[in-house]
Amino acid sequence: MDIIHTSSDFLSWKKNNAGTLGFVPTLGALHKGHFSLVHSSKKICNLTVVSIFLNPTQFAAHEDLDSYPNTLEEDIKHLQDLQVDALFLPTKEHMYNEVDAVNVPSSDLFNRLEGASRPHFFHGVTTIVAKLFNVILPSHTFFGEKDAQQLCIIKEMIKNMQYPITLISCPTARDSNGLALSSRNQYLVKKDRQLASIIYTSLMHIKEALQQGQSNVVLLKAQFINMVHEVPGMKVDYISIASKNSLEDVNTIKSEEVLISTAVYFNNVRLIDNFTYLSSAI
């Protein structure tokens, strides 16, 4: 695996490596969820490139940029074991001062769900992802469904900016107890990771209620909050039942695909999860 630090060096590397190129952008602190994206890329593409860049502009002042897990040595070893072709590992100075600026169109999607709690977040994400696309020039890119809103926004950005890139969404990787895998899970001790599985259990309670014909959105949300709040230290930031396409909250469940998504604080650790549900008319 080649480790590349600058856009000019990557351009030189790419000239010597032909074929379809799958790209997996990450913040580092890699886990099985990231590795599943790599596996998907290797099945489809001739080449697979992973980037590790802890993007400061997608963290607010009160968030965990300074304490975000740093496992670079382990990350590199895992990527080598997975036979990734190249790791793009730029510095903050290079990404912001040397890679050409981009103008990503804003979107109403930025302000919903995660955006309501983290208004800075998607401006930071899309700026860096667009810059990375401009450096890597992939044929395919791979994103996890755990970050469902991000997936929608990147899909929209690819369309609006006319990138010739195929976006592949990959299923959420989970612990054996259902907890969605996340780099932030490293903040939790084993007992807390077990307790945090209540998030998935409570989401599945909503799914079962929908399958049984329940359509009262207010009641479904209240039941979710009550279940999660039974665990000491847990507080729901939001629970949303929204149109999968527009991300606008729905008041009644109709015959459409909906995204049920949540963010939950477990003490100071913020965890997200979701599932999609396609209902028949109720």
Write the layout of secondary structure elements.
Elements: E1 2-4, H1 7-15, E2 21-26, H2 32-44, E3 47-52, H3 72-81, E4 86-88, H4 92-98, H5 114-117, H6 121-136, E5 140-144, H7 148-160, E6 166-170, H8 190-195, H9 198-211, H10 217-228, E7 234-243, E8 257-266, E9 269-278
Parallel strand pairs: 1-4, 2-3, 2-5, 3-4, 5-6
Antiparallel strand pairs: 7-8, 8-9
Helix pairs in contact: 6-7, 9-10
Task: Specify the CATH class of the largest domain.
Answer: Alpha Beta
What share of residues is helical? Answer: 25-40%
**C-alpha termini separation:** 53 Å
So, CATH architecture of the largest domain? Answer: 3-Layer(aba) Sandwich
- Compute the number of strand runs: 9
Output the structural class.
alpha/beta
Strand content: 15-25%
Mean pLDDT: 94
Number of helices, where a helix is a run of at least 4 consecutive DSSP H or I residues: 10
Overall body shape: globular
Radius of gyration: 19 Å
Helix-strand topology string: EHEHEHEHHHEHEHHHEEE
Reported by name, the CATH topology of the largest domain is Rossmann fold
Structurally, the number of domains stands at: 2
Q: Would you identify the CATH H-level superfamily of the largest domain?
A: HUPs
- As laid out across the biggest beta sheet, the strand order is 1-4-3-2-5-6
Low-confidence stretches: none
How can the largest sheet be summarized?
6 strands, parallel
